[in-house]
Amino acid sequence: MEQNVTEQKKRIFSGVQPSGNITLGNYLGAIKNWVSLQDDYECIFAMMDLHTITVRQTPAELRKRTLELLALYIACGIDPEKCTLFIQSHNSAHAELAWVLNCYTYMGELQRMTQFKDKSARHADNINAGLFTYPVLMASDILLYQTDLVPVGKDQMQHIEICRDIAQRFNALYGDVFKIPEGLLVKSGAKIMSLQEPTKKMSKSDPNPKSFISMMDDFNVISKKIKSAVTDSEGIIEYRPDDENKAGINNLLSIMAVVTGSTPEDVAKNFSGEGYGTFKSAVADAVVDTIRPIREEYDRLIKDKAYLQQIYKNGAESSHRLAQRTLKKVYKKVGFIVD
Ligand code: ATP
Ligand code: LTN
């Protein structure tokens, strides 16, 4: 009976790359949202290590960060009893399906991807084929699990679109092999901006550490970063999402709104007439209050390597079982000998 209930639940897949210290943007735009979904959906969350090597990584650091990311997922409230948590490279089906789907994806489609254009501009000395086909690996991650919904930040919606296109193309050729997934955006916090260049998204691989808040930063560093966030010279606290000059204040209002469960408009009302200094201090305090309990839990978990290992090992096994069903189907359809 219980099994029946689980089978009826819609399935969710998502992940974050262990490519740097997780930022407040990653938390508010992605992970926080996952926590609220885990009771109503069958959830699979992964540490996307295969994706990270599209940009050069230091091997020892990548290993360390992958485990830290798992501990952080759990510290943020993801329950390993309810969700499948695994490391992408532990399940070879991801790379296998990606190869097949590469042969069903056009160069022209990939050339249009904003993330590819951004990252190849930032890493001009290493524009590798993996960076180019990154969205195909991401499509494979999603399609392997017959995923219904993919909760991500706004910047990833273009990748969800191409995933749907690839799946539809494949289905048109071979019948209903893949479920067509949908992206799921958070209502607020879907795009937290850089504290130094508030028209750009906050990114964990930004070379300027003052531009992002890491979930691992010291609390006084977090405060300092918020207090030195770029704003404007107007000195008026108002939420004007379409006014680029207000990008810094809009961003702080949005952050304050998500961490306090309010709206940017209401926060602006509460602080109207106040100076930027007072407002920034309040935002800093609210952000620290949000991060503090997560960090305490994280500090406890990261010491328990055996526990973390047991979780990712179980996750590898269950994800492998689920993924093989789709991979076998795909192999059969394209003409590989399966049994
Ligand atoms: P990188 O800088 O290495 O590209 P990133 O910080 O952009 O990394 P990802 O690992 O690519 O983070 O993204 C993980 C998740 O966090 C995705 O769902 C993404 O949409 C979300 N996310 C990333 N940055 C932000 C942001 N600034 N605001 C809201 N959500 C974000
Ligand atoms: N590209 C994603 C990380 C990612 C992902 C996925 C997210 C890789 N594969 C599958 C959702 C589903 C990013 O957030 N940068």
Characterization of this structure:
The protein is globular and about 70 Å long. The model has no long low-confidence stretch (mean pLDDT 95). It starts with a helix and ends in a 5-residue tail after the last helix. Strand 1, helix 2 and strand 2 form a beta-alpha-beta unit. The chain has a three-stranded parallel beta sheet with strand order 1-2-3. A two-stranded parallel ribbon has the order 4-5. The chain has 339 residues and is mainly alpha-helical. Bound molecules: adenosine-5'-triphosphate and L-tryptophanamide. Adenosine-5'-triphosphate binds next to helix 2.
Give the topology, please.
Layout: H1 2-8, E1 11-16, H2 24-37, E2 42-47, H3 49-52, H4 59-76, E3 84-87, H5 93-102, H6 107-111, H7 114-122, H8 129-143, E4 149-151, H9 157-174, E5 182-184, H10 219-227, H11 247-260, H12 264-270, H13 276-301, H14 305-334
The protein binds adenosine-5'-triphosphate and L-tryptophanamide.
